[in-house]
Design goal:
Number of helices: 5
Distance between the termini: 11 Å
Strand order of the largest sheet: 2-1-3-4-5
Radius of gyration: 13 Å
Helix content: 40-55%
């Protein structure tokens, strides 16, 4: 991870802690949020520099695609990935519409997540 900073957003506390631990073990700094609104406020505050945002899709309040859309408005170059327990062609298409190249199955890919994060950041030049 080389100390690169990932924002992870998931309203399910246990999943957030698990993914955060996986990423920290791989050498990433992780900021965890349980609400999209809080994640966006953190990003807008500008007190931290993030290299990647990973967000759950299904959350109360602000869904992952809406968070991604908002992130892209203020930081167009910041890569955003959506994770979901349910992935459909419609969900992938909606993600692409808001500038998200990848929707990952969070229930099956936790083990591969850290390696994938490095690839996404490298591809985005972070």
């Amino acid at each position: 991870g080389l100390g690169r900073h990932v924002m992870y957003v998931d309203d399910y506390d246990a999943m957030g802690e698990l993914v955060s631990e996986v990423l920290r073990t791989a050498g990433y700094r992780v900021t965890l949020h349980t609400r999209g609104e809080d994640a966006l406020a953190d990003l807008l505050a500008g007190t931290e520099t993030f290299d990647l945002v990973i967000t759950d899709q299904n959350m109360p309040g602000m869904a992952g695609t809406e968070l991604a859309r908002q992130v892209k408005l203020v930081r167009p170059a910041l890569p955003v990935i959506i994770s979901s327990g349910y992935i459909s062609d419609e969900r992938r298409a909606r993600a692409r519409e808001v500038g998200v190249p990848e929707v990952i199955d969070k229930t099956r890919n936790i083990e591969r997540l850290a390696g994938s994060v490095a690839g996404w950041m490298d591809a985005a030049g972070h």
